[in-house]
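Researcher: Good morning. I'm working through a list of sequences from a screen, and I'd like to move beyond sequence-only analysis. For each chain I'm collecting a predicted structure so we can compare shapes side by side. This is the next one on the list. No need for commentary yet; just the structure.
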Amino acid sequence: MNIDNFDSFFPHLTSRNLKKGSFIYEEGQGPSGIYYINHGLVGLYHLAENGKETFLRVFGKNNLLGHRSYFCKEKYHASSQAITNAEITFIPQEDLEIYLGQNPNSLRQILAQVASDLGRSELRMSGRHDKSAGGRIIESIVFLKLHYPDQLWTRKQIADYSGSTFETVTRVLNKLEKDGDIIKNGRDFSIISVESLLEKAGQY
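Model: Good morning. Structure tokens for this chain:
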């Protein structure tokens, strides 16, 4: 989402350039504002008690980050890390409250985004029980490739995002290549037909 009048309302805020792999905030920390992504991709990761890391979400240009925890007044439930080189702007609480007071429509937009994110999250969790690992992997690569086509998605990231394993992702991608559904190019790949690939998701 775009924040109305962002540049004109926050001219005093300084953007921060992040290198790939840099953390923005870590799980368990308390929010004191929200983040706005100017450029690049940021991933949200959760570390379970058993040490397993799960890739939950991906945020791109013009997305807000950390807003759910901020408005819920909760500690961050996951860590955010730059997937690519990125540029972000931190909006501290005092600036944010003034802005939202003067731009109530933006508050409605943010709350609508939170509700939409929650709905997608619930559908993803439901799909982990209702779909096979292969079906989840196919739907995940279609989503990631369509929304962020320039990013090189690793087998581990796809596995985490789909709730699967590295080995299963490798096996599914190899089969999709053999069947002519994708074309591999080094560690990357391209999808031949999104429609036919999604149809195949129900067969796995």
